[in-house]
Amino acid sequence: MTRKNRGPRTAAPAPQGQLVQQVPGPSVEAFTFGDPVPVMDKRQILDLLECPVQGKWYEPPLSLDGLARSYHAAVHHASAMQVKRNVLVSTFKPHRLLSRAAFGRWVLDFLTFGNAYLERRDNRLHTAMELQPTLAKYTRRGTDLDQYYFVPGDGQEHTFARRSVFHLFEPDLNQEIYGVPGYMAALNSAWLNESATLFRRKYYQNGSHAGFILYMTDPAQSENDVTALRQALKDSKGPGNFRNLFMYAPNGKKDGLQVIPISEVAARDEFFNIKNVTRDDVLAAHRVPPQLMGIIPNNTGGFGDAAKAAAVFNANEIKPLQQRLTELNDWLGEEVVTFEPYVVQSDGEGSTD
Question: Which stretches are transmembrane (predicted)?
Fold first, then answer.
């Protein structure tokens, strides 16, 4: 026998029309735990930069629905406006044309939207019978600036009598049709405060962690084992996040299954800093002393005498607001809005005036 030179062996080509079956190799699998959290970005409230004409009336330069929802975004944002409203209502002298309740609604609209409206309802002799506030969120000013409309929804239009609505508004730098609230610069801080609170709530509901990576490298695990583990982790979130999870892995290695936390320390530490910084921004925009808001001081010295702070608050904020509200008297030709002195008891007696 003779020895023949043999070259490298090659696989015989597959017959025509026959597919070659390849064995799939191991692949990396990644999946998330928990449901997605919807986050509403409220920055679109600043997208409207002018007062567009909508048929017979002008639309406001800002989303009034966004301002109404932002009222409840942060504790100190709503509380600051409620403090001013309560002080003004407590010092207001009720009039036969304007009740205390109607005055309180009117003031809250002015503080929240920068616009407040009062409708004069006349009797058959064309004399004023009462003044009723109309919701600023749905009130629109007509292209005839003496004409107003109430538009709570599509096809629900109500036309007020011409020159029967008094419009008190906070002046704006860009247009003279509607007012803009003075706290606009603090809205981002109020929204960030709300986002921090919602994140912290989800953080606790999720088992006091901001999420983790489940890293599995043990080749002894089968696809059924991975599916069972995934379902067990999904069932342990929310109300069951304090449950213990047992896993048995035959021939498993020590580091075959690892849990890697994500940003746990940062999520714990940044919450309080964000809450404190955004709170200070909101209070600075509303110019309300913290001791009048029920805020507990972090330092040993406290915030100082509340009575003195109330006196400064009365001089710088309450009195200018009272003077703005008395503009109704000039429009109506009758002294309807009057106030009593704002008195604060300190050591038995005291007054801010």
Answer: none
Please state the φ and ψ torsions of residue 258, each to the nearest 5 degrees. Answer: -130, 145
Q: How far apart are CA 91 and CA 94, in angstroms?
A: 9
Per the structure, the complete domain to which residue 141 belongs is given by: 42-183+287-353
Q: Is residue 171 part of a domain?
A: yes
Residue 166 belongs to some domain of the structure: yes
Are 181 and 77 within 8 A, CB to CB?
A: no
115-122 and 53-54 as β-strands: parallel, antiparallel, unpaired? unpaired
Record the tokens describing residue 228, joined without a space. 């069972």
Cβ-contact 346, 307 below 8 angstroms: yes
**Contact present, 256 and 220 (Cβ < 8 Å):** yes
pTM metric for this prediction: 0.71
Could you tell me if residue 15 is inside a domain?
Answer: no
| Strand ranges, E, within the chain | 53-54, 57-58, 115-122, 128-134, 139-142, 148-150, 158-159, 165-169, 212-216, 257-261
The total of structural domains in the chain comes to: 1
Closest to 284 (Cα-Cα) out of 317, 262, 253, 311: 317
User: Could you give phi then psi for residue 132, rounded to 5 degrees?
Assistant: -125, 130
By CB neighbour count within 10 A (0-12 exposed, 13-18 middle, 19+ buried), where does 324 fall? middle
For residue range 182-215, what is the model confidence (pLDDT) as tens digits?
Answer: 999 899 999 999 988 887 787 776 655 556 677 7
Nearest to 41 by CA among 14, 63, 21, 13: 63
Assigned domain for 277 exists: no
Q: Which amino acid is at 316?
A: N
Tokens (6 digits) for 2: 């003779």
